[in-house]
Sequence to fold (315 residues):
Amino acid sequence: MNSADLQTLAKRSRFMRETGFALLFASGILTLFLFIPLAPGKIVSAPITIATSTPPDAFAQVPIEAKAAIVYDLALGETLYAKNADAQLPLASLTKLLTVYAALTELSPTTPVTIPTEAIRLDGPHAFSAGQIFTLSDLARLTLVASLNDGAAAIAHATALRENRSEYEALAGAAAALELSQTYAVNGSGLDETTAVSGGYGSARDLARLAGALVEKSPDIAAATTQSSAQAVSAGGTSFKVKNTDPIVGTIPRLLLSKTGFTDLAGGNLVLVFDAGINHPIAVVVLGSSVKARFTDGTKLINAALAHFAGVESL
Fold:
């Protein structure tokens, strides 16, 4: 091979090396594009902030004297406020709500109810004479509005006769039907049996549900308890007018039911049901307060409930 041929071969070898290096370089650049993500342009992403708001607690600053209380949404079955709501406490005359409810499950509102002799022997308040006859509806209205012990005893007696069992069993049956696990009554009036035994026991939660059930079963009788007084005429033509034991009934908007209670063992009790909207009943129950503070306790809880639905801390 002459020198010219050798020069030509060297040129070819050099060209191939240079070409190989170029191909390797190009392959490397391609690999970078394929496997390394391209850096984005200068796009600055602002942090995403999700606005959240906690509704104010309208019940947070509501001091009450009562040993137990509840604000219960009867429409939704929800507790809006609770203080010892499941504690079993003496009910005093709130027992009369159970007595009337038990009677309405067994008797027609027009059923005649006679005042028995033993009823008029009870401590007051009372208004009747033995042998007087009223329709159940009229007697229930008078009894609940003025918290009449003789009326409650007559209603419990009539219910027990219809069911052919004791008054205690009749009242216990009504409580069981409503699944009121903390509630039972020794008598129909709620009067203390002794200095140590109350005439009825129950929890604030049970009483809220009981009051709601009575409003649903007999809205007319419940509505009577929202008035300042009630009137009725006995079968013999005697007219009766009684005053409501709750002095604040005229101050509560859309009130559906009111019932007071007081004995030495129970202290001051109160049940209120009001409509927070269209067909949206709310029950407020106060147990173990004082004679006066039960009404201020109830008013505070009513106002807090109204603030709750208005979405504000207080009115």
Summary: The longest strand covers residues 255-263. The chain has one domain: 68-310.
